[in-house]
Amino acid sequence: MIAIVALLSGLVFGLGLILSGMGNPAKVQNFLDIGGTWDPSLGLVMGGAIAVGLLAFTWAKRRKTSVLGEPMQLPTSTAVDRQLLTGAALFGAGWGLAGFCPGPAVMNLATLRVEVWLFVAAMLAGMVLQHAWAKRSA
Length: 138
Known about the structure:
The protein is mainly alpha-helical and 138 residues long. It folds into two domains: 1-76, no CATH class; 79-138, no CATH class. It has six helices and no strands. The protein has helices spanning 2-20, 25-32, 41-61, 82-98, 102-107, 114-137. The protein is globular, with a radius of gyration of 17 Å. It starts with a helix and ends with a helix. 9% of the residues are buried.
């Protein structure tokens, strides 16, 4: 049952990415190009995602287990530190340069475009390096 729900959730997420245009790097870059061909429509997508997320996290905080009975695992840290700000800056720079963030990039692997596969490979390499760095620093 958990695998079916995960699959359906992924399909709904992917469909939302396609319908909103988040899977199109040019649309994302146009949203970030305030002085040029600015496309504000992604602001509405982000606002909708924030609203849904706010409702979901508010509901989840009140629960000990998920709907499927799994333990609820929510972030506990509220610190805004150097690690968080560095990660946010790197994420934003990558998103702005490539027009992809992880979800849309994985979805776009199906296009078989070389630049998408290179982006995902670089993203995974960055994750491995960050994990190794975190273990070394601990």
